[in-house]
Amino acid sequence: MMHAVDHIGIAVANIEAAMDLYRRIFGVAEFHREVVPTQGVDVASFDLNGVRIELTAATSETSPIAAFIAKRGEGIHHIAFRTSDAAGELLRLDAAGLQLIHSTPQPGAHDMLIAFLHPRSTGGVLMEVCQPRTTSTTDI
Question: For 38-92, how does the pLDDT look when each residue is reduced to its tens digit (9 = 90+)?
Fold first, then answer.
């Protein structure tokens, strides 16, 4: 089962400008930065009292983030929920009739296995299932 909010993903057009904004809003001293080639994203994240805020920019025009920003503009992209068994959770959700974007977990930021649920079946909210691959992945 999903047992916690892991992070909130925010789609941004310019990662550096977004980092500057979030520094000013929350006083962020340090961001975790990484590029996830398989997802086509550049991620800058920080911890906000136990919930990761993940600023996500496209690394190419074919990235899902680029498509999202082109269609909807910058803003909240998804909410991610942590589980200890992403594959099992996907089987459970599929059996419950939810539409999966990924039928198997994919590599994601923070050494996570991730998969998305289609917003058509989740009340308009893009949801991500994520599973830490190691105990260190919950660190920012």
Answer: 899 999 999 999 999 999 999 999 999 999 999 999 999 999 999 999 999 999 9
Tell me how many domains the chain contains: 1
Bridge partner residues of 52 (DSSP)? 7, 47
CATH, residue 85 = 3.10.180.10
Q: What is the domain extent for residue 67? A: 4-138
Q: How many CB atoms lie within 10 A of CB 106?
A: 15
Q: What pLDDT digit, counting tens, does each position of 96-108 carry?
A: 999 999 999 999 9
| CA–CA gap between residue 72 and residue 59 (Å, rounded) | 18
Is residue 10 a contact partner of residue 31, using CB atoms and an 8 Å limit?
no
Burial level of 6, CB count in 10 A (0-12/13-18/19+)?
buried
Beta bridge partners of 116: 128
